[in-house]
Amino acid sequence: MYRHLNPKYLIFSIFTAFFSIILNAQETEANEITHTKSEFWSKVRFGGGIGLGFSNDFTNIAISPTGIYQFNDKVALGAGVSGNYSSRKHYFKATVLGASLIGLFNPVRELQVSAEFEHNNVNYKDEVFNASTNYWYPALYLGGGYAIGDFGAIGMRYDVLYNSRKSVYGTAIQPFIRVFF
Question: Do the domain assignments include residue 133?
Fold first, then answer.
């Protein structure tokens, strides 16, 4: 009946189900009787990122949820976890798992300055030379961007610890989009 299940359709189905559950949970919460939140939880916000990339022989899947505590309208601190899987048929497979600490500062409403320390475990298998390596790689990002209301920012960040031979990224400079709810 199912001869070849295309991975693109499988991943699309998983993400559709995931977002349906999230949307349903938010609707259910809105319909419930509102309770007074503790002051701590009223200042906690969640966000993160999802990345997907596919071609005939390349796959990249990334997810990185983050939570922050909003001390006031200028300062927030938080933590996150991340996972990334990349592969190219007959060339390599890589899995990157990590954690991060982030500090956000808004000196004015439209500007967000950030510092983020990220520590990743890289597991890389080279299928051409049949070799594997596993190592830890730290990154310290300093960034700045345009704050979009109270829920996010778009900008650039720079890894001051960048090492082109070990980094999981191709360059020290990276664009970012942050969203928190």
Answer: yes
Domain housing 125: 40-179
- The structure tokens listed for 133 are 């390596």
Q: Establish how many alpha carbons lie within 13 A of residue 122's alpha carbon, considering only the half-sphere containing its beta carbon.
A: 19
Whether 3 maps to a domain, the answer reads no
The pTM is what? 0.73
Per-residue pLDDT for 162 more than 80?
yes
The C-alpha atoms of residue 173 and residue 58 are separated, in whole angstroms, by: 23
How confident is the prediction for the chain on average, in pLDDT?
84
Beta bridge partners of 76: 70, 104
User: What's the CATH number where 154 sits?
Assistant: 2.40.160.20
Is residue 78 a part of any domain in this protein? yes
**pLDDT of residue 31 exceeding 60:** no
C-alpha dihedral, 21 to 25 to 26 to 28, nearest 10°: 140
